[in-house]
Amino acid sequence: MLKIKNINFSYGANNDEYDLKNINLHIKKGEVILLCGGSGCGKTTLTRLINGLIPNFFEGSIQGQITINNIPINEIPIYETAKMIGSVFQNPRSQFFNVDTNSELVFGCENMGLPVEEIENRLHEVISTFDIHNLLNKSIFKLSGGEKQKIACASVSACKPQILLLDEPSSNLDSRSTWDLRKLISIWKNRGNTVIIAEHRLYFLNDLIDRIIFMKDGEIHKELNKDEVISMDTESFLHLGLRPLSLEDLSKNQEDFSPKPDNLDTPLNLTNFKYTYGKEIAIDIESLQVPQNEIIAIIGENGAGKSTFARCLCGLEGKCKGLLEKEGKTLGDKERLKISYMVMQDVNHQIFTESVLDEILLSMEDDEAIGKAEEILKNLDLLHLKETHPMALSGGQKQRVAIGGAIASKKEIIIFDEPTSGLDLKHMREVATNIKELQKKGITIFIISHDMELILECCSHVLLFKKGKVVDNYTLDDTGEEKLKKFFIENI
Hints:
Structural class: alpha/beta
Radius of gyration: 23 Å
Number of domains: 2
Low-confidence stretches: none
Helix content: 25-40%
Number of helices: 17
CATH class of the largest domain: Alpha Beta
Largest sheet: 6 strands, mixed
CATH topology of the largest domain: Rossmann fold
Distance between the termini: 32 Å
């Protein structure tokens, strides 16, 4: 069905350094193919070649050919390619064309010129399949990251393409939504659709994958069939630098956290943290006590209020009149803004400069800034990209640049909103290491995350959110680890 033959590709006109090299791949109808490998290995570039974004939107030098049913993809208009291939990008916001969910769900079908009755039938079908009744008639701008991902998947599915191409589809999804995604992929597979997934988190794809294509440095480094995948244990995946296919065997990192400075023994006390969107209550916390100088995981389903709480905590939401008591001082939103730093879920909102190095320097003041900035980049495996424009980076690389800015800021409270979204195993662990180094400097860290692997790697405390309230507040000891696993594994 899909044949990739002798593909070499480089962005721009430089043929000396190819971004993809010697790619040969034959994908059959109905297969579920996993593209995996480290950040920057070429997964996203390969997906852009398959769905026609290269060369229609991303220019470069191409050698070789890609065909679907013997039709050369790189020689036909992209609107013809879109009839055969449906794509869901890592950042679903980048593919929306409407401001409300209902219009977005039928947008592709309307562009195809389908009859009104057929469009309505397809709309009802995807609403039922995705179980997204609660997302109808809503503003796109008021959806959480995971809810946007659901709408993107549903709108693409409504067009009924032969091939579904998903780029990091689980990156912003909670555990329940990840399970919903798995069910959808299973439905596509049972219908005979071909599904190609570029992904770092693998556990939700267990038993669905027909082949793993492992990429490294722009080449296909290894190909594994279904039987080979099933026979691999967790250590085999870790040896390849891949995340495991199961969460069952994971356990908390036993590394001791550094002793707290004497002045940080007192907890943080939050009172009257309340926030509404119109008439809808988003945050409703009368009082909350959390340990200071700890790494605190904030978990919960999409739409539970986690990101809104983070914005209120760091003082970005002036309508929230909540107070934070820290070391005997009571801090309102303006005072909290001075001592807090937040790495947003969509890091494109906080990238401002024209080079990776300048982005780190933006958060620094002292005379030795360049040397310290380069050390931060080295620890995040970004030093070789220091002169690169941040917007030219992959999603995972941008995420690490934003984390570098947080490290450089020297704030007393740092909040990370999904810091490992789009990161491979190696870079997830590097981020965890850097976060633990921040904690050792007396900084209190909050991490909003759907990534159980990250939480077990570096967190010491957990807050569970539900409908804007904290419904559980516990230390990540042995008992807490069982609670955490129950939350994640029972939902997937």
